[in-house]
Amino acid sequence: METRYRSVLLFGAPGSGKGTQGKILGTIPNFYHCACGDMFRNLTIDHDLGRIFIEYSSRGELVPDELTIRLWRDNIRYAEQSGRFARERDTLVLDGIPRNPHQAVMLAETLDVKALINLTCPDLSKMIERLQRRALRENRLDDANLDVIKKRLEIYERETKPVLDHYGSALVHTVDSTQSPMFVLRNILDILAQV
Ligand code: ADP
Question: Is the pTM of this model over 0.90?
Fold first, then answer.
C-alpha cells in the first residue's frame, strides 16, 4: 500500500479565513496548499464537472461526494506527477475537504491527518461581511447573494461540522479567527510546530 499523505486540515465556516491562511501556509517550504473550492473554480464551463459545480455552488450546496473525491484525487496525483507535491517531503494543507463525514471516510486510507485547525468566528455578521467583500474582488458569485450565503452557513452547520466529531477532540485545535490574520497565523504555526 502507498504511504498516506501527511495532512493538516483547515476547517471552518465559509468566511472564517481558511483560504487566507492556507495560501500563506502554502508558501512555506514542505507545505502544499490544496483548496477544494479553487480546484472546482479552475474547471472550465465546457467541462461537465465545471457545469455541475456551478449548478451546486450557485445554490450554496455541496457538490456530490463521489465527483468531488474523484476530482481531488486526479488533482493531487497530477501535482505529484509534476513534482509540485511529494508525499515523502511535504505536508498537505487541505482547505475545504473533507467537507462531510462521508468524504472523511472516503479519504481515510489516503490521508494521515495530523491535526485539524478549527477556525471559529462566533460573529456571524463579520463572516457575512467578509464573504460579501470578496464577492467582487474574487469574482465569487456564490458570495454575492445573501440567501446563498445563508444556505452555505446552514450546510456548514448541518453537514460539515460533524467532521469535527469524526476526527475527535485529540486532533482538533481551535483558533479564534476573529483575530487579525497575523495573529491567526501565529496560533496556527504554534500548533503545526508541535504535530
Ligand atoms: P467557502 O469555504 O467559502 O464556502 P469554497 O471555495 O471552499 O468556499 O467552496 C465553494 C463551493 O465549492 C462550495 O459551496 C461547494 O459547492 C463546492 N465545494 C468545495 N469543496 C467541496 C467539497 N469538499 N465537497 C463538495 N463541494 C465542495
Answer: yes
Which CATH number covers residue 104?
3.40.50.300
- Poorest-confidence range of 18-32, 63-77, 91-105, 122-136? 122-136
- Give the total number of structural domains in the chain: 1
Contact residues for 129 (Cβ-Cβ < 8 A; gap 6+):
none
Residue nearest to atom 23 of ligand 1 (CA): 97
Q: Are the C-beta atoms of 93 and 149 separated by less than 8 Å?
A: no
DSSP-derived letter for residue 141 is G
Q: Is the CB of 167 under 6 A from ligand 1?
A: no
Q: What is the pLDDT of residues 11-36, one digit of tens each?
A: 999 999 999 999 999 999 999 999 99
- Burial label, 30 (beta-carbon count in 10 A; 0-12, 13-18, 19+): exposed
- Whether ligand 1 lies within 6 angstroms of the CB of 36 is answered as yes
Backbone angles phi, psi at 144, to 5 degrees: -85, -30
* Domain membership of residue 137 as a residue range: 5-192
pLDDT, tens only, 86-115: 999 999 999 999 999 999 999 999 999 999
